[in-house]
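Deliverable D2.4 — example input (structure tokens):
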């Protein structure tokens, strides 16, 4: 290394000085000693300058890391603030939801992901609700492209709601339910505006229960 080289040169100077003293101060050894001394001084200057450059680079890197740290700390604070705001909003929504429930007010919410009919129902039940029972035109026209709480999974052709009440009024699309391929036991509300004959009051369709859709929960 540079430090080891400088130490070697300085040791050489010391040896030359020692032999110069032993030989009575030979002019030849004195010149060698002076030359090595100059080289040693130049090397030390080079090492000092190189160390200064290294120090400058390290300080620059330190400042960059400090800036990155400050930036990440600021983002962390912003995320913590955002999380707190979302948590407060969630808590407020939960309080509103609980308040509506205590007042006996019916409320609806949708599953956040596409799920099978049974998984959508479990999603609702985990939240103190169940898949929606549609027994009025007002409810019927409020939703589209979702699972509702109607199926004939227990007895083919006998439609029942999730509360085990029988179907009295239906909003079926023409030709439905047809149990296509013998495995359509769950009901979707599937208002397709682009297909002739579909309308908000004629949009029920039986569909395989394993297919993934969102579900409407009622509480």
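Example output (designed residues):
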């Amino acid at each position: 290394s540079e430090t080891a080289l400088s130490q070697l040169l300085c040791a050489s100077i010391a040896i030359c000085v020692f032999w110069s003293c032993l030989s009575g101060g030979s002019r030849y050894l004195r010149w060698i000693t002076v030359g090595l001394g100059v080289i040693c001084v130049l090397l030390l200057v080079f090492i000092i300058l190189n160390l200064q450059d290294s120090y400058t680079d390290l300080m620059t890197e330190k400042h960059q890391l400090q800036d990155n740290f400050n930036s990440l700390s600021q983002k962390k604070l912003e995320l913590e603030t955002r999380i707190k705001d979302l948590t407060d909003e969630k808590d407020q929504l939960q309080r509103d939801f609980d308040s509506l429930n205590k007042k006996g007010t019916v409320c609806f919410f949708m599953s956040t992901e596409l799920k099978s009919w049974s998984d959508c129902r479990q999603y609702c039940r985990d939240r103190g609700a169940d898949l929606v029972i549609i027994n009025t035109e007002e409810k019927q026209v409020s939703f589209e492209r979702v699972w509702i709480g109607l199926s004939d999974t227990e007895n083919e052709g006998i439609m029942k709601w999730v509360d085990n009440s029988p179907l009295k009024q239906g909003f079926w699309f023409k030709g439905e339910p047809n149990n296509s391929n013998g495995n359509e036991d769950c009901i979707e509300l599937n208002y397709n505006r682009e297909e002739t004959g579909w309308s908000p009051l004629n949009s029920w369709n039986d569909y395989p229960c394993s297919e993934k859709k969102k579900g409407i929960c009622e509480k």
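The longest helix spans residues 27-102.
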